[in-house]
Amino acid sequence: MKTFSKRALLRASAAPAILGASLIATAAFAQDAPQAADAEAADTIIVTGSLIKNPNLAQSTPVLATTSDEIDLRQSNNAEQLLREIPGVVPSIGSAVNNGNGGASTLDLRGLGSNRNLVLVDGRRMVPYGLGGVFDLNNIPLALVERVDVLTGGASTTYGADAIAGVANFILKKDFSGFEANLSEQLTEQGDGNTFRADVTMGANFDDGRGNAVFSIGYQEVDPVYQGDRSFSSTYLESYLAECTSCQGSGTSTPTRMTLPGVGTRQISADGNSLVPTYQTYNFNPYNIFQTPFKRFNMFGSANYEISDSVKAYTRGMFSKNTVNTIIAPSGAFALAVEIPYSNPYLTDGIRNQFCNANGLTAAQCSAAATAPSMIANPLAGQAGQPDMIANPDYRTFNTTISRRAVEAGPRISEFKTTFFDYALGFQGDIGSHLSWDVGGSYGESEQVQTQKGYTLNSRFQQALLATATEGCLDSSNGCVPVNIFGPTGSITQDMVDYLSADSQITTKTTLAQAHATLSGDFGVTSPLASNPIGFAVGGEYRKYTASIESDLLSQANDLGGAGGAQPNVSGGFDVYEAYGELIAPLIEDRPFAKLLSVGAGVRYSSYSVDAANSPSYDTWTYKFEGSWAPVADVKFRGNYSRAVRAPNVSELFTPVTTGLTNLGTDPCAGSAPLGNANLAAVCIAQGAPASTIGFIEQPSAAQANASSGGNLDIKPETSDSWGVGATFTPTFLPGFNASIDYYNIKVKDAITTPTPGDAIAACFDNITAASATSAACTVIGRAEDGSLNGTATGLYLPLSNLGKLKTDGIDLSLNYKHEFDFATLTLGFNGNWTNSSKFQATPTSLNRDCVGYYSVNCASIQPKFQWSQRTTFTFGDVDLSLLWRHINKVKYEPAQLQADMDAADAINRDSNGVLLPVDQQDCPDYAGADAGGCVVDSQFRKIKSYDYFDLTARAQVSDNVTLTFTVMNMFDKKPPILGGSVGSTSYNSGNTYPSTYDALGRKFAVSAKMKF
Predict the structure, then answer these.
(1) Are 291 and 1001 in contact (CB under 8 A)?
(2) Quick check: 470 and 496 in contact, CB under 8 A?
(3) In degrees, to the nearest 5, what angle opens at C-alpha 18 toward C-alphas 15 and 24?
(4) Does the keyword Isomerase apply (predicted)?
(5) Spatial distance between the Cα atoms of 55 and 74, rounded to a whole number of angstroms
(6) I need a surface site. Which of 531, 652, 662, 745 has the fewest CB within 10 A?
(7) Helices (H), strands (E): how many in the chain?
């Protein structure tokens, strides 16, 4: 939190709707599509990026494949960790995200948001985990993964809506026969973060090989790693003022902080007898975690059976039960407006006198109120119509806003228990020698029960403070126990904690029913200059989504202290009917200067119907064009263009407008700035700040402000245009070497987005005039009783619309080489990504922000300009020795935000006429230099140098049936960069660093054993 320093005005988190290939060498390679090896492995061929199943037809869309062998070398325990390190993938919600983790792990290709890419299993969608329509990667059974294909660019023609950035397709093992068991254990060098995983897979052929059945079962358990157990994260650092000891933490602290009329916020002194300037904030870091505790039990089964020579039945079932816990610092009263009697039994004389003076009570009135009960005996009792008790005229109360951390209640824990299943059944077969068909369907459900533990209730704090005796409250309902907020840590006793606290529960349910029918093959017709026939696929698809959230009354009422806002009940759904077609035509083959020349095209029509009043509906068309040219066998050039769409999800359509939290470091109305600027003061008052609070408004607590947003049934699908060109090289003069390079360009228009908090602040406060107090951009912001953007404030208004734009482009490079020496086999692999730009504009009047190579609250997770992964493996008979080198290019604090900070600091130093104030009256003196006011990010936190990590793996086949693998991760124990805790968004800037991008756990050891029979 930065409550006690003066900061620049416009520092705000984007965390907008958008925010939401290092796998190489021995087992990862760039490719056009799975080719003959896959064709020989099984009858069912899965070609990522195409509905045409002929592996002999060249695809023109680049696909990066990661095999199970690479997964073994990495000792990956879940799919999110595996994908997170692929160059071009931006770290999203996963095990390294604590505050902001919704109990799931997601994928973010190209930084366009986890809702703009698809995660598939064997080319099919799975039921999402929440209302955002995103699949939870925790449900992927890694033990059965044969390979992972990552395709970049619009793929809506092939897979339908949402595949704007691309797809990640998990191809599972087929026709498995035998028994395989895997055991693995991981532990950090400091002895924490233990990870255990066990999987057993068995399969068999039956009926003379006509059928096959596979069953797998797995269990995984991960222990937390606390930020308090690492020296660099045990104490919260303020990114804007690292040297300020009173700024290092949250203003919701102990002793209690209270607003005093005409004075501002003060803190109860150490002796409890007075209110003094804030001297002790709360260090919340030790409670928070770098690695979320996780338990998973999963089962998978699949079977196929040849009913006849031309018809095969197949089925697949997936089940998992996952438990994810997030752990954050204790609950409490976060800028909570309360009413307190002057006769509260725990209120000390000194503090009482301060409130009496501030509220204009005379000494006699204050003395009388100090002991006054709320009711007294009626001297006329017994007479007709007279009550026994009447209101005491000496009884008085005062209003204040309190910030009290309930450390006595322990940490806040959100336990997410997700039960997931998805079942599929289908039939496929051949019609003659040129055609094949596939008809199938699936149904899946996900239910997540979130139990919030350790939270105190706002309403019970308010009830418990309305007391005039220690024995009971004025309102005795709920077994009320008066609470003592006027003492040091420990003044809230266990009886008080028991009364203040309650668990809350939120249940999220989603379903997905889908059916498809596809006819594919070839026309039996070839180009006169080609040998392979023209391939095609046509078909139709139907999908039905439903999703709902059911919250208990505590969550609906936003009664949990520090829960981030109310969670209303939500229910909605939509369905879509689709028809599609695709062609691949080899035009020239095996000719001079045309070893191959082929073209392809595809189109998909989709009709959506929303389950709402008046049945909103819309239709979309997506299409693609692609081509490949290989002048000789050694070189092939390829290009593609596609139109893709993303339909609004259930959350974007149906969520009512609610108030939650966003990142905002500085409130323009906070501090003394409005005192010297009458126009600014008028705006603050127009937004709901009482006139008496001007000059005393607090900065957002813990750099988080309230914001209101919700769904919109009027939004329509967003569209994207993407294109790419590239080349592959397999030189005959260098056997064992192959390379590929591809440029991609993705633009999204009519993007479904909300304004960033910075946009909302800028729209109102950028150019304050006398008319600003009546401007809609200003009056739409709502403030609390103390004038702040916390507590009961509706905060910033961030409406959902189709006004956004996104754009990204870059280059992927893949190099692979394998050579056999007399003593060993050397395998080299390199995959890298260079991102030229990744721009986001929430509205036409918003800043068109580019976050590549930068970090700030606007840019969420870090997306470096360049990153690569290189693996070197030596194979000595049955022993592999492999080194993985991961590089993350240097990044720096976002220049646009730094300039905005400085511009705002300059504005703070001027009066309403734009005249620079004397230095001794400036809130941000020398902001470009020493910056004693803490108005810009501390210079030591403005850049991160390039980072290199090395993982060493040794693998040995100790017998025909047993393979042992040992890995040292981050073998040089490289510490993460230290940036403070308020330079970025809450989800990704945690523990004074960015733990999703940089390793915060330190050196880690992993060992695993695989047994095959």
Answers:
(1) yes
(2) no
(3) 110
(4) no
(5) 29
(6) 531
(7) 14, 44
Confidence of residue 27 (pLDDT cuts 50, 70, 90): very low
Closest listed residue to residue 640, CA positions, set 493, 745, 718, 557 = 745
Tokens representing 1007 are 């060992």
Which tokens belong to 497?
């904690």
SS3 content of the chain, % helix, strand, coil (to 5): 15, 45, 40
- What element of type H or E holds 852? none
Measure the CA–CA gap between 713 and 650, rounded to whole angstroms. Answer: 10
H helices present in 62-155, as ranges: 68-74, 79-84
Dihedral of alpha carbons 902, 903, 907, 909, sign: positive
Q: What ranges do the domains of the chain cover?
A: 658-711+757-797
Long-range residue pairs from 267-275, CB within 8 A, at least 24 positions apart, any chain: 268/351, 268/486, 270/488, 272/348, 272/351, 272/486, 272/487, 272/488, 273/348, 273/349, 273/350, 273/351, 274/350, 274/351, 274/354, 275/351, 275/354
Minimal CA–CA distance to 80: which of 225, 230, 220, 184?
220
Q: Each residue of 457-470: b (16+ CB within 10 Å) or e?
A: bbebbbbbbbbbee
Judged by DSSP in three states, 925 sits in coil
CA–CA separation, 843 and 840 (whole Å): 9
**Which residues lie closer than 8 Å to 626 by C-beta, 6 or more apart?**
59, 60, 61, 599, 600, 601, 638, 639, 640, 641
Query: Which residue has tokens 């997410």?
Result: 416
- The answer to whether residues 842 and 756 touch, using CB atoms and an 8 Å cutoff, is yes
- Crossing angle between the packed helical segments 349-358 and 363-370, to the nearest 10 degrees: 130
202-221 residue pLDDT tens: 999 999 989 999 999 999 99
Task: Return d(Cα 18, Cα 165) in angstroms, integer.
Answer: 11
CB 294 within 8 A of CB 322: yes
| Rounded CA separation 341/347 (Å) | 9
Sequence length of the chain is 1013
| pLDDT over 70 percentage in the chain | 94
- CA 91 vs CA 22, 109, 110, 867: distances in Å: 13, 9, 10, 13
What is the number of other CB atoms lying within 10 angstroms of the CB of residue 631? 15
Residue listed under structure tokens 């907020």: 485
